[in-house]
Fold:
Amino acid sequence: MSYWAIVLAGGSGTRFWPLSTSDNPKQFLPLAGDRPLLVNAVDRLQPLIPPERTLIVSAARYADATRRMLPDLPPENVLGEPRPASTGPALAWGTWAVQQRDPDATILSTHADWWVGDAGAFRDAAKTALESAARHDRLITVGIVPMRPDVSYGYIVPGEPLDTHVRIVQRFQEKPRAEEADRLIRSGALWNSGLFAWTVTRFFAETQAHAPEIAKGLPALEESVAGFFETVTPIAIDVSHFERSQRVGVVAGNFPWDDVGKWSALARVRPVDDEGNVLVGDAHQHDASGCVVWSDGDPIVIDGVEDLVVVRANGVTLVTSRERASHLKTLIEALPDRLRNPGSSRSS
Structure:
């Protein structure tokens, strides 16, 4: 039995506008260091899962750029979705593509836009999940040991043990309030990261049993990927499989992890100065604290301010509070078209 990986890389990352745009999405950006998040995601899988057994599922428009960014990956391992349909159909297609090459495979599903602070511990947890998926014939999720009572994450409540490493999932709880998140953590709950493992056989058995939104499209895959995506109903894998199935286990992942979901997250994944500022590029501060400042070329100077996000990228300057920076999608929808994708408008 061999291990394969499917890396989900289809998001546009509007929460990092104006640096991220529809032409240059979040996974292509060096948000957590010197290299793109996508490159880090593929590299941290090795040597557990090599490039030849790693598939990338991305939007069709990003397929060529993804291949250029990952030259060690066989070109056919980049799958371009003809339309977005959430993670359930994307992972069904990826699992089907693995099945065509290796029907006995066990698959790890991960995301392209995470930060992981300990790649070795990540691989240890991933290997345990893969082994557990095969041994117990279950869908396995890796729950991250929480570092804080974060209300932006879902939580997993573990139940009875299956062995020393994996437990039955008692229930999932979506984005609780702060008091409830603290109570869940004290009771042993884990963050629902979206790091999953399954065998090809178990995945499709659970698809047929619990995911009619996806199952109805599977026959079309034999003829046409486009036909599959035209037939399925968009649905997240968390809902279609993990919340509905009775064959779900959880492995604890004890490594630093962040989904890098908004500008303020950079203070958790990048170095900060003595005042808690993140300064990237030609960025400077005086008597400022708790700010995130990113420049792609032009100098930025902040003075006497707190808790701001200031970004200069693609010819656009954004100034907002760290709190409001999590609502950039609303802002972008209110902007004129020429500002929504600034990199494209400058180059046209």
